[in-house]
Amino acid sequence: MSTEPVRVVIADDELLIREALRAVLEAEADLVVVADAATVDEAVALIGQHRPDVAVIDVRMPTGGGVEVARRLARLGIGTPLVAFSAYDDAGNRKLMRNAGVGEYVIKGMPNAELVSAVRRAVNAPVS
To answer: What range(s) does the Response regulatory domain occupy (predicted)?
Structure first.
């Protein structure tokens, strides 16, 4: 079993959300946030640069949101597992994210343990 922490990139257009996510994730001994992004372009660049074990991405951000991040990463051949993080719990957004290759979907406002569990599941999911 690896003792290296799980490396995470966060992408959300709201600074307060990014800071809260960082605090929640880094409260766990096995998780470390290596970068955070406010835009789709930043998210793709930072995920490409850091090659994290997982990225938590907002479903709705300016210039395309999580779906656009997932599509760009796929075009670049970057297979980082993604966790969608959204204020919207509707079937349409869930389907869009699933079709873009995002395996986990967490609603903002859920208990912090739900987010932590989703991050861990994403990292441990079998690669298809």
So the answer is: 7-123
Residues 26-41: tens digit of each pLDDT: 999 999 999 999 999 9
CA distance 43 to 98: 18
Flag whether 128 is in a domain: no
Cβ neighbours of residue 42 closer than 8 Å, sequence gap 6 or more: 11
In a domain, 85, yes or no: yes
Separation of CA 17 from chain center: 13
65-86 pLDDT per residue, tens: 899 999 999 999 999 999 999 9
Domains identified in the chain, total number: 1
Q: DSSP secondary structure string, 72-105?
A: HHHHHT----EEEEES---HHHHHHHHHTT--EE
